Amino acid sequence: MAFCSKVRSLLLQRNRLFSSSILSPDSKTPLSSKEKSRAALTLLRFEKNPERILDICRAAALTPDSHLDRVAYSQAMFKLKESHYYEGIRSFINESLTRPDLKSERFVSHFIVLYGKSGLVKDAIKLFDEMPNLGVPNGVKALNSLLFSCILGGEYGEMKRVFSEFPRKYGLEPDLDTYNTVLKGFSESGSTNSSHSILAEMERKGIKPNMTTFSVVIGGFYKEEKLSDVESMMILMKKYGMRPNISIHNTQIQSLCKLKRSDRAKAFLDEIVSRGMKPNCVTYHLLIYGFCKENKFDVAKSLFKEMVVDKKLKPEANCYFTLIYFLCQGRDFEAALGVCKDCMAKGWVPNITTMKMLVDGLISIEKVDEAREIIGAVKEKFSRNAEKWSEIEEGLSK
């Protein structure tokens, strides 16, 4: 017994050294789990070698319990998929499933979703089938994850098959999340008409739809330009005693913008505001993106001003990034610079592609000092690219 205990202790010590040497080579003390997660995320961002990516994940001892770790899992799977290293994905997930701390329906469900994100839907189905062999009973949470996995992998036919066969096969009763996931699949695949039969089944089973249900279906009907069906959904909402909230209206605005009808979306916003509905940051971001995609930059700038000055709303980082990027695309570099300065004052810096576009644009209109200022901010934020930016900065003096 003493010998076994010593072996376990040595293995634990070896694992700690392994994780520290990969995640933080210069660290002399063991990293906390949060420090491991942050170090893993930073390394994964720039790592391209598939085996090295797997080593980073192993060293961090990732767990789906942590938000940071879930982000790291997704980033790792995305990079492995890009490298077509599917065997590595399978190997890592199978390896993770041997960990005693990850043997629960919640964690297995996470791995089922990761298979879908990696385009390995057959493996996701196989894992669901084999759950009892892992000591984890098949449950409705795992079923919902499997349906979502099929959607992520673009396997809508498999989603329909799983939905029609698996509840009966495994003795599971679909819940609201099950139906909402299936409705999402129908809406994304251009089969929103099928939602009528799903909603009827929900009514028969006494499962009341929620705002997510209607948001998904309405978005699907807009995408297919079936406006009479949108109206029928609005009537059905009233039947259930629900009034469209700003989330539902944001879905309508987003759908109109995707159809390149941003002017109609703006008119719709004015209409709901006149009825007392208060737009939020998401509303304006959707409209700004829609008008930018249609190259109507003056309207986008006006909406941004309306959001900040008139409505006193606080745009999120992505709204700033969107506007800066598209203003650069439209060669309105002075306006982009103004928005960028506001953005950086809040501690947010757009990605390097957008910033390079802005710097090049400022140089092209002879705003060299402003370009230098931007370069300084970027060097501080993206230290890995500091040398590249220093070279660009040196070129400004020539």
TrEMBL record:
<keyword id="KW-0677">Repeat</keyword>
<feature type="repeat" description="PPR">
    <location>
        <begin position="280"/>
        <end position="315"/>
    </location>
</feature>
<dbReference type="InterPro" id="IPR002885">
    <property type="entry name" value="PPR_rpt"/>
</dbReference>
<feature type="repeat" description="PPR">
    <location>
        <begin position="210"/>
        <end position="244"/>
    </location>
</feature>
<comment type="similarity">
    <text>Belongs to the PPR family. P subfamily.</text>
</comment>
<dbReference type="Pfam" id="PF12854">
    <property type="entry name" value="PPR_1"/>
</dbReference>
<dbReference type="Pfam" id="PF01535">
    <property type="entry name" value="PPR"/>
</dbReference>
<protein>
    <recommendedName>
        <fullName>Pentatricopeptide repeat-containing protein</fullName>
    </recommendedName>
</protein>
<feature type="repeat" description="PPR">
    <location>
        <begin position="175"/>
        <end position="209"/>
    </location>
</feature>
<feature type="repeat" description="PPR">
    <location>
        <begin position="245"/>
        <end position="279"/>
    </location>
</feature>
<dbReference type="InterPro" id="IPR011990">
    <property type="entry name" value="TPR-like_helical_dom_sf"/>
</dbReference>
<dbReference type="Pfam" id="PF13041">
    <property type="entry name" value="PPR_2"/>
</dbReference>
<dbReference type="InterPro" id="IPR050667">
    <property type="entry name" value="PPR-containing_protein"/>
</dbReference>
